[in-house]
Amino acid sequence: MNHTAGRRFSPAAASALERIAEEVSVCMQCGTCAGSCPTAPAMDYTPRALMRLLQAGLFDEALRSRTIWMCTTCYTCTVRCPRDIHVTDILGRLRGIAIAEGYAETAGMTFNKAFLDVVRRYGRMFEPELLIRYHLRQEPLGILGAAPIGLALFQKGKISPLPERLPAEGLAQIRRIFEAVEARQKAAPAASSHA
Ligand code: SF4
Ligand code: SF4
Predict the structure, then answer these.
(1) pLDDT tens-digit map of 97-115
(2) Contact 149, 112 (CB under 8 A)
(3) Is the CB of 29 within 6 Å of ligand 2?
(4) Would you say 7 and 14 are in contact if contact means Cβ atoms under 8 Å apart?
(5) Which of 173, 163, 176, 183 is nearest to 118 (CA)?
(6) Helices and strands (H and E) in the chain: how many
(7) Ligand 1: does its nearest atom lie under 6 Å from the Cβ of 11?
(8) Nearest ligand 1 atom, CA 24
(9) φ, ψ for residue 27 (rounded to 5)?
(10) What is the per-residue DSSP string for 112-164?
(11) How many Å apart are CA 43 and CA 46, to the nearest integer?
């Protein structure tokens, strides 16, 4: 175990965090990422502020933040960063580290896991199952609140009551991608990006 800013991290996580700190050291705090981020209002730290935490070595705060789970991986921050910092991928790596280091499961982490489980199962999104998986793990009674929204979306033809599966070959490809990522995470648990 290594101590990094007050918290004990595994050697793999400590080394991955030091690499991230090195990558963000060139951030000039211009705020382009924060100004471009569609989910910044839902974050506790904007992407710019998160870069600052990482520069300061405040890894525990960064890993506890809601920010890493609110990212929709739209890549806007990454393509606009004047310092070519791969903000999106860094957030993904932080998610992987948070899981590998046993951080408490937050609503964002649950949603992320449920999303990936559904995509792995069907090769596509199936919103009703996503909501059920999320609420069963996070707040079972919340299903009651989500039901009217689901019904309204169904009536407008926005969601299907039955899942669409990719053809077998496409689904096999998706599952191979999951397996490749898992193998990579097993080899370097805290270094790989987590969608
Ligand atoms: S856009 Fe790039 S340089 Fe500017 S604050 Fe964000 S990460 Fe830093
Ligand atoms: S990739 Fe994530 S952090 Fe970057 S702009 Fe999109 S939602 Fe925001």
Answers:
(1) 999 999 988 898 999 999 9
(2) no
(3) no
(4) no
(5) 163
(6) 11, 2
(7) no
(8) 7
(9) -60, 130
(10) HHHHHHHHHHHSS--HHHHHHHHHHHH-TTHHHHHHHHHHHHHHTTSS-SSPP
(11) 6
Q: What pTM was computed for the model?
A: 0.81
Place of tokens 């700190």: 21
- Dihedral in degrees, nearest 10, Cα atoms 147, 149, 151, 156: -170
Q: Which amino acid is at 84?
A: D
Give me 190's structure tokens.
């805290």
Give the residue, by CA position, lying nearest to ligand 2 atom 6.
Answer: 74
Please list the alpha-helical segments (H only) found in 65-126: 67-70, 76-80, 87-100, 107-122
pLDDT tens for residues 10-31?
A: 999 999 999 999 999 999 999 9
